Amino acid sequence: MLVDEFPPELVTRFEELVARRAERIPLQHLTGRAHFAGLELAVGPGVFVPRPETELLVEWGLSQVRAGIAVDLCSGSGAIACAVARTIPVVYAVERDPDALPWLRRNTQNTSVTVVPGDATDPSTLADLDGTVDLLLTNPPYVPTTEALPPEVIDHDPAVALFGGEDGLSVIRPLLVRAAGLLRTGGSFGMEHDDQHGESVPALMAASGDWEAVTAHRDLAGRPRFVTAVRR
Ligand SMILES: C[S@@+](CC[C@H](N)C(=O)[O-])C[C@H]1O[C@@H](n2cnc3c(N)ncnc32)[C@H](O)[C@@H]1O
User: Which residue range or ranges hold the Release factor glutamine methyltransferase N-terminal domain (predicted)?
Assistant: First the structure.
């Protein structure tokens, strides 16, 4: 619709939002919404804002598996779980942060996703599913603590969602072990990682003996971004 002028209260509201954005508050926190793989998710303080590069991980996962059991470890807002649940109805979403869980519950409330509060690296989490999972996707915290981040990220994404210790691998290492425990032989695995991990993460996986077809993938900017594999 074309209009000649905006109502003054709308202009004031718009100017307020622009001023807050100039303070480096993420746009998604101002609107309360994030768009991911065609979904609109509720986000705000306490939860990681899903990023477009993670859509590539989902795309890869659904190109491999379209039925059975899927698991999203480190689920945050539930972006991966909700996107996968449009195709695979049995999806479990594991998240440990009590501040993120209300967002995850809200985003999954009209879906078939089962929310599982807990530590994704703990062998007791989803232990009933050991050896049965067909697709496991994860976007864990992976930023090295030494890395400088823009204010939108460091001041607004939760630290537990971002940092993976000094080398960025402190969650990834035990998560790889847990993923291998959950997946059935031949099950598909995809994990996002830092752009510095394009060689180290595939090497870790190759060394474990748990995986075959370990493949490194780049994001839309051409940076190393995620790894995929098949459970041996
Ligand atoms: C990078 S965010 C990703 C969120 C979401 N999967 C996405 O792609 O937008 C990582 C998430 O993992 C959660 N997390 C960190 N360590 C965890 C652990 N050991 N077990 C379960 N969740 C964890 C954080 O709270 C955060 O929500």
Answer: 4-32
Q: Which amino acid would we find at residue 124?
A: S
Taking only the tens place, the pLDDT of each residue in 2-25 is 889 999 999 999 999 999 999 999
Residue intervals in the chain for CATH 3.40.50.150:
32-231
Most ligand 1 atoms within 8 A of CB, residue of 53, 60, 71, 74 to mutate: 74
Q: Per the CATH hierarchy, to which homologous superfamily does domain 32-231 belong?
A: Vaccinia Virus protein VP39 (3.40.50.150)
DSSP assigned state of 36:
E
- Per-residue pLDDT reduced to its tens digit, 202-232: 999 999 999 999 999 999 999 999 999 999 9
Contact between residue 136 and residue 179 where contact means Cβ atoms under 8 Å apart: yes
Q: Say how many Å lie between the CA of residue 5 and the centre of ligand 1.
A: 44
* Protein residue closest via CA to atom 6 of ligand 1: 75
